[in-house]
Design brief:
With 284 residues, the protein is of the alpha/beta class. The chain folds into two domains: 155 residues, D-Maltodextrin-Binding Protein, domain 2; 92 residues, D-Maltodextrin-Binding Protein, domain 2. Helix content is 37%, strand content 20%. Strand 3 and strand 4 form a beta hairpin. This is ABC transporter substrate-binding protein.
Length: 284
């Protein structure tokens, strides 16, 4: 072997060793640091939002806290759950660049997104509808031609809306709360996203009776938690944690807390979303 070949071999070996060293699982990094950075939304009640006391709370928040409990057990030391705000526009980037270890953020698992990130198993199933002022002539996507419809940047809702109502004027805003504010101010004629998010927006209004959720579902939205690609140890751990909540009744308790019949977010068809359905990613 020539001196050049020897040096090249040594350099390649060092590079490979460095790659292996840098490929430690996020789960191991969390155990080492004692901190679990979880990305959640602040604008999507009841999944993730800031309550009247200034606390970040919601369905997604409760689920990531359960993952935090399981991390404490497997790491054999207390793990601090740090909630960080993400939006539909930045959540994938934040997972990719390590700002957060996970994004539990009403994210639909799609094949297109799987080109850049991984997803947990499905933990909630929803579909897209419309939120309009009570008495609006808009009853479905067929009535949206020439209408201004608010939604969030970077969401599947934005894509679905353009496909289902190509003659509508889609107004993409930073957050769903911004879209609802635009509806309240008359700057848009409707807001469109997943039905449970619409339910939360409606419930946040001073007088919810002034708004109505209308039309049939025009999409299928299987929610998965966003994870960095090619980290099977971390992905498997998250899936095991979600499965544990289903097996021991924790998921049902959290679901009932946020979507039960006595809550302001009560679902008209709770069986549609309650059973952590095993849905394939949708092709978007």
């Amino acid at each position: 072997m020539t001196k050049f070949a020897t040096k090249l071999f040594a350099l390649t070996a060092l590079t490979l060793l460095g790659s292996v060293a840098s490929a430690a699982s996020i789960r191991d990094q969390i155990c080492a640091d004692g901190v679990f950075n979880a990305g959640v939304k602040y604008d999507s009640p009841p999944f993730g939002f800031v309550d009247e006391n200034g606390d970040v709370t919601g369905f997604d928040v409760d689920l990531v806290k359960e993952i935090g409990k399981d991390l404490t057990e497997v790491c054999k030391k207390p793990i601090k759950v740090v909630l960080k705000q993400v939006t539909s526009k930045n959540r994938i980037e934040f997972v990719q660049n390590g700002t957060v270890d996970i994004a539990a953020s009403t994210a639909t698992a799609t094949y297109g997104r799987m080109d850049t990130v991984d997803f947990s198993n499905t933990y909630f199933l929803d579909g897209q509808r419309l939120l309009v002022p009570a008495g609006s002539p808009i009853k479905s996507t067929r009535d949206l031609a020439g209408k201004r419809v608010g939604t969030a940047q970077g969401s599947t809702s934005e894509l679905n809306l353009k496909a289902a109502a190509p003659k509508s004027n889609v107004v993409s805003l930073q957050q769903y709360t911004d879209a609802f504010t635009a509806l309240q101010q008359g700057r848009v004629d409707a807001v469109s996203t997943d039905s449970t998010i619409l339910l939360g927006l409606k419930a946040s209004a001073p007088d919810p009776s002034k708004y109505a959720i209308v039309g049939p579902f025009f999409s299928s939205e299987p929610y998965g938690m966003i994870l960095k690609q090619n980290d099977s140890k971390w992905r498997n751990f998250v899936n095991e944690s979600l499965s544990r909540t289903g097996a021991d009744g924790t998921y049902k308790k959290i679901f009932t807390k946020w979507f039960g019949p006595k809550t302001k977010y009560a679902l008209p068809d709770p069986k549609r979303a309650q059973e952590i359905p095993a849905q394939f990613p949708v092709r978007r």
